[in-house]
């Protein structure tokens, strides 16, 4: 039976006042406002029943910033917007979380920039429609239509990746919208368009000829999984370090060690002081399923922190065996964008 589309619901009135946005700023989840003429963020006016961002602004949600989004957005975040052809409000909260975890695993644990072919190997895009009460009727949603989900079919085999169990409780997130400055239009400009059909390319994977090139990275991921790395531990390490994974940074996360200058480290972190353990645990529980306890915070440290896992192991015949060979490591440190057609501004 053919599926029928019905009209989308109206936007919910925004609950984000200036006071609430200042709270996000104090929590080091939003950058402080520095320009009164063009602030980093703006609370919607009382008469904005739906988003009407000023020129040069997009529509964001407080949930996104709790889950790792920063401004200006990272190169990988911008690439996702252009690849899937979506505006910022089209991402679901879990899509932001999945992206933040992936970026952190690449930078903080594998020691490389987020890898595009690896992303396509592990994830696909799915379209979310709102409930209509009838199976044959679909209702487009104005925010959160793009879900980024791990591939689970036997033929897709994301067996090497770490467990990522995300929460299903995001009640009220779509009323937490506000305006975020979009310098140089790095993110797609807000139009408010609805996406009613899933484009085919949302499910594209890696070109078969490139699949074998992922083997060294998949071996390293398998090692991290066997050592016990899970999404909750990844997020706790991020919040403990006060880094937003989807914010443009001068250093990769694995480079944020004692060897870096204090000025550069200050530019990478939202604060030089780690938040209280209870606060970190609450942020993790808001993003992933399960009852994450504060005693597990930073239980699997990122590189180069003390206690981080070294992906080089002894090997009796040749002296050592690296999960990345010297050749593959150089190849995979860069973010492969050669198969994408992107706005060049997204790759700055």
Low-confidence stretches: 313-348
Strand content: 5-15%
How much helix, percentage-wise, in residues? 25-40%
- The geometry reads as globular
Task: Give me the count of strands.
Answer: 9
Order of helices and strands: EHEEHHHHEEEEHHHHHEEH
Widest β-sheet, arrangement of strands: 2-7-3
- Gyration radius, in Å: 20 Å
**Count of DSSP H/I helices:** 11
Indicate the structural class. Answer: alpha+beta
Mean pLDDT across the residues is 86
How would you characterize the largest beta sheet? Answer: 3 strands, antiparallel
Domain tally: 1
Query: What separation lies between the terminal Cα atoms?
Result: 47 Å
Polypeptide structure, described:
The structure is a single chain. The chain has 348 residues and is of the alpha+beta class. The protein has one domain (4-337). The chain is built from 11 helices and 9 strands. It has a 3-stranded antiparallel beta sheet with strand order 2-7-3. A two-stranded parallel ribbon has the order 1-5. Strand 8 (312-315) and strand 9 form a beta hairpin. Helix 4 (93-110) crosses helix 8 and helix 8 crosses helix 10 (277-287). It is globular and about 50 Å long. The N and C termini lie far apart (47 Å). 41% of the residues are buried.
Please render the helix and strand layout as text.
Blueprint: E1 4-5, H1 18-26, E2 41-42, E3 57-61, H2 62-66, H3 75-84, H4 93-110, H5 116-122, E4 123-127, E5 137-138, E6 146-150, E7 177-181, H6 208-211, H7 215-226, H8 231-241, H9 262-268, H10 277-287, E8 312-315, E9 319-322, H11 326-332
Parallel strand pairs: 1-5
Antiparallel strand pairs: 2-7, 3-7, 4-6, 8-9
Helix pairs in contact: 4-8, 8-10
């Amino acid at each position: 039976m053919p599926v029928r589309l019905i009209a989308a619901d109206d936007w919910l009135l925004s609950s984000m006042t200036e006071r609430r946005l200042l709270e996000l700023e104090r929590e080091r989840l939003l950058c402080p406002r520095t320009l009164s003429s063009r602030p980093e963020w703006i609370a919607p006016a009382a008469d904005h029943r739906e988003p009407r961002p000023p020129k040069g602004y997009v529509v964001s949600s407080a949930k996104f910033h709790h889950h790792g989004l920063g401004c200006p957005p990272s190169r990988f975040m911008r690439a996702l917007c252009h690849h899937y052809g979506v505006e910022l409000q089209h991402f679901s909260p879990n899509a932001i979380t999945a992206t933040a975890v992936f970026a952190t695993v690449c930078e903080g644990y594998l020691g490389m920039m987020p890898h595009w072919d690896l992303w396509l190997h592990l994830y696909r895009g799915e379209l979310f429609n709102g409930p209509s009460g009838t199976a044959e009727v679909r209702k487009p949603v104005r925010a959160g239509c793009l879900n980024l989900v791990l591939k689970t079919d036997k033929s897709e085999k994301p067996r090497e990746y770490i467990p990522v169990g995300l929460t299903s409780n995001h009640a009220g997130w779509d009323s937490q919208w506000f305006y975020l400055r979009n310098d140089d239009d790095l993110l797609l400009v807000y139009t408010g368009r609805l996406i009613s059909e899933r484009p085919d390319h949302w499910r594209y994977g890696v070109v078969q000829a490139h699949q074998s090139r992922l083997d060294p990275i998949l071996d390293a991921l398998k090692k991290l999984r066997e050592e016990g790395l899970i999404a909750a531990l990844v997020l706790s390490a991020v919040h403990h370090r006060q880094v937003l994974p989807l914010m443009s940074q001068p250093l990769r996360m694995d480079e944020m060690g004692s060897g870096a200058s204090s000025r550069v480290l200050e530019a990478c972190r939202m604060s030089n002081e780690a938040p209280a353990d209870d606060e970190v645990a609450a942020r993790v529980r808001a993003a992933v399923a399960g009852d994450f306890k504060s005693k597990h915070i930073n239980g699997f440290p990122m590189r180069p922190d003390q206690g981080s896992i070294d992906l080089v192991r002894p090997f009796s015949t040749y002296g050592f065996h690296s999960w990345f060979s010297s050749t593959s490591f150089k190849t995979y440190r860069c973010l492969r964008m050669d198969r994408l057609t992107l706005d060049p501004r997204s790759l700055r």
